[in-house]
Design brief:
The complex is a heterodimer of chains A (113) and B (111). By secondary structure, chain A is mainly beta. Chain A is built from no helices and eleven strands. In chain A, strand 9 and strand 10 form a beta hairpin. The relative contact order of chain A is 0.33. Chain B has 111 residues and is mainly beta. Chain B contains no helices and eleven strands. Classes of the chains: A mainly beta (113), B mainly beta (111). At the A-B interface, strand 4, strand 5, strand 9 and strand 10 of A face strand 4, strand 5 and strand 9 of B.
């Protein structure tokens, strides 16, 4: 099994550009989430989904959109990139009824110039 | 006040030392307590989890939860250079599946 796959691994954007970070999991997990990780701030939840067609906001949702049309995929869209969105982004998935483990992707390093 | 507080370190210890990593939390609804290890430029991976209070041991690692004090710990015995990583604590409540993470403690084990 591939687990959680994120693409791309690295990306440089110009201010104002938009892009989509891809996340796919092959474990049939119901719960998926997006975090950003910044120095001294830890992992902060951006958006999450408890199943296909259901999404909700986390701690830092502004400037990001998500959708969940299938169980496997949970893309994160940056609408108009800003330098404050320079960060490492992690996608995670976990079984809905098992609050004991989140499986993480390898991360996307995003720089907005 | 943040849901989960964790001393960021950095922590530097000689090989073979016992390492103690700690987190405190404020939400009494948390039932599941996890420790993740994150190597540089990698995603976090689950190291251990405990449910409710008590201790759990797995090889050189011991996780402790004291719900009365809202305090959790991870002990690493006979630390190795390969243990050098950032350790993140995480917690979740029984209902829902949202995880709350600490900021992580950077550990370096010196050969």
């Amino acid at each position: 099994n591939a687990g959680v796959t994120q693409t791309p691994k690295f990306q440089v954007l110009k201010t104002g550009q938009s892009m989509t970070l891809q996340c796919a999991q092959d474990m049939n997990h119901e719960y998926m989430s997006w975090y950003r990780q910044d120095p001294g701030m830890g992992l902060r939840l951006i958006h999450y989904s408890v199943g296909a067609g259901i999404t909700d906001q986390g701690e830092v949702p502004n400037g990001y959109n998500v959708s969940r049309s299938t169980t496997e995929d949970f893309p994160l869209r940056l609408l108009s990139a800003a330098p404050s969105q320079t960060s490492v982004y992690f996608c995670a998935s976990s079984p809905q009824r098992k609050n004991t483990e989140a499986f993480f992707g390898q991360g996307t390093r995003l720089t907005v110039v | 006040q943040k849901e989960v507080e964790q001393d960021p370190g950095p922590l530097s210890v000689p090989e073979g030392a016992i390492v103690s990593l700690n987190c405190t939390y404020s939400n009494s609804a948390f039932q599941y307590f996890m420790w993740y290890r994150q190597y540089s430029r990698k995603g976090p991976e689950l190291l251990m989890y405990t449910y409710s209070s008590g201790n759990k041991e797995d090889g050189r690692f011991t996780a402790q939860v004291d719900k009365s004090s809202k305090y959790i710990s991870l002990f690493i015995r006979d630390s190795q250079p390969s243990d050098s990583a950032t350790y993140l604590c995480a917690m979740s409540a029984y209902t829902g599946n949202q995880f709350y993470f600490g900021t992580g403690t950077s550990l370096t084990v010196i050969p």
